[in-house]
TrEMBL record:
Signal peptide start-end: none
Keyword tags: Amino-acid biosynthesis, ATP-binding, Cytoplasm, Kinase, Nucleotide-binding, Proline biosynthesis, Transferase
Catalytic activity: L-glutamate + ATP = L-glutamyl 5-phosphate + ADP
SUPFAM superfamilies xrefs: Carbamate kinase-like, PUA domain-like
Family recorded in the similarity comment: Belongs to the glutamate 5-kinase family.
CDD domains xrefs: AAK_G5K_ProB, PUA_G5K
Species, as recorded: Parasutterella secunda
Sections of the chain in a coiled coil: none
Protein name: Glutamate 5-kinase
GO molecular function: glutamate 5-kinase activity
Binding-site residues for ATP, renumbered to this chain: K17, S176, D177, T218, G219, G220, M221, F222, T223, K224
Keyword Transferase: yes
Gene: proB
PANTHER family, sorted: GLUTAMATE 5-KINASE (PTHR43654), ISOPENTENYL PHOSPHATE KINASE (PTHR43654:SF1)
């Protein structure tokens, strides 16, 4: 069933991305009024039980201003130095303003490594989940200071889709200096029309997306379309709207027709399970006993606990995908394993309460959580 605007009211976990142009004035100084409104809206929705995550750009722009540079540096070290200066100012500003609304925030700096390396991916996910559990709003940016060129995500539009997939968000809202996707770049085509709904990202839509419209923006509409593609394929809806539009976040979450909605086609769980079943690289296997086999196969399904495991094969890391085998060696399921093969060998057949003593830490009670488990026919 295709998503309608009113369905966005049900979004529980929401990633909001703001571009440099949204939170800074044209001269690169912080736009406090805008940041204040943003923080107030996010804190208010958080108070109503939603889980909000902010992805914010602006470190370079703010750093350029603080360093008194005439323009954005062209060299990588120049940009990294500006980001190092600006990121602190950005966080200081958010921390102060969110504190006024009684909202605790956390800085999360990510690089592309967190997508490539499943161990880091899992670690990042665990940290996000813990922050959300403690009702903290994570404030995310790329770790520009250390991200090397080839290991850079490069833009926060793609970062917002990535964060949404890491935390299994329901919705991404990208706030920009433009009020959505137009049929052509509105800066060069004044008669271009706003598109309010996109069900399929066609070649024509991709062609209509040009580069950054402002001197501080990075990817323009192009990277927003890339983000929309990633999010919607992963089963996550995405809206692009204007950061200067009054109460844009609230109006979107109330189901109003604001900006452009990119509709997710796939059911998120199905997509993840499909990926697990057919896309992921199988790095090893765990053998389970009959009781465990029955438990994971019954309707609703159970997670795999250490007590049901009788064997571990291969050499894999926490976060890798593994096969689940019967004692006869038949593959009955695949799933994302929370523990490495080395750790698993220490907890075979034991109670979850013993994990910490045997492994030295306990990230999860489950070896494979049922949400990360696909049962094969
Ligand atoms: N088809 C399009 N529809 C809307 N905006 C577009 C389109 N093609 C290019 N753009 C440009 O993309 C800009 C938004 O991207 P950008 O400047 O990077 O903002 P941000 O800092 O929010 O990421 C708009 O101001 C606009 O000039
Ligand atoms: N990480 C960079 C921003 C990169 C980026 O995507 O910028 P923007 O196009 O303004 O969202 C920074 O904080 O300056």
């Amino acid at each position: 069933m295709l998503v309608e605007r009113k369905d966005l009211k049900n979004a529980k976990r929401i990633v909001v991305k703001v571009g440099s142009s949204t939170i800074t004035h044209a001269n690169g100084k912080c736009d406090f009024a805008r940041i204040d409104k943003l923080a107030r809206e996010l804190a208010d929705w958080q108070n109503q039980g939603k889980e909000m995550i902010l992805v914010t750009s602006g470190a370079v722009a703010v750093g350029v201003d603080r360093l008194g540079l005439p323009e954005k540096p062209k060299t990588i070290p120049g940009k990294q130095a500006a980001a190092a200066v600006g990121q602190g100012i950005l966080m200081h500003t958010y921390e102060k303003i969110f504190a006024e609304y009684g909202q605790v925030v956390a800085q999360v700096l990510l690089t592309r490594m967190e997508t490539i390396d499943r161990h880091r991916y899992t670690n990042a996910r665990n940290t996000f989940m813990e922050l959300l559990r403690q009702r903290v709003i994570p404030i995310v940016n790329e770790n520009d200071v250390v991200a090397l060129d080839e290991l850079k995500i490069g833009d926060n539009d793609n970062m917002s889709a990535l964060v949404a997939s890491i935390v299994d968000a329901d919705l991404v809202i990208i706030l920009s200096d433009v009020d959505g996707l137009y049929t052509a770049n509105p800066q060069t085509h004044p008669d271009a029309k706003l598109v309010s709904r996109v069900e399929e990202i066609t070649a024509e839509i991709e062609a209509s997306a040009g580069g950054a419209g402002s001197s501080v923006g990075t990817g323009g509409m192009f990277t927003k379309i890339q983000a929309a593609k990633n999010a919607t394929t992963s089963g996550i809806n995405l809206v692009i709207a204007s950061g200067s539009e009054k109460d844009a976040i609230s109006r979107i979450l109330e189901g109003e027709e604001v900006g452009t909605l990119f509709v997710s086609k796939e059911n998120r769980l199905q997509f993840r399970k499909r990926w697990l079943a057919f896309g992921a690289r199988i790095m090893g296997s765990v053998t389970v006993d009959e009781g465990c086999e029955k438990a994971i196969k019954k309707a609703g399904g159970c997670s795999i606990l250490p007590v049901g495991i009788v064997g571990v094969q291969g050499d894999f890391e926490a976060g890798n995908t593994v096969s689940v085998l019967t004692k006869e060696g038949r593959e009955i399921a695949r799933g994302l394993c929370h523990y490495s093969s080395e750790e698993l060998k220490k907890i075979i057949g034991c109670q979850s309460s013993e994990i910490e003593d045997r492994v030295g830490h306990k990230a999860f009670d489950e070896v494979i959580h049922r949400d990360d488990l696909v049962i094969l026919n």
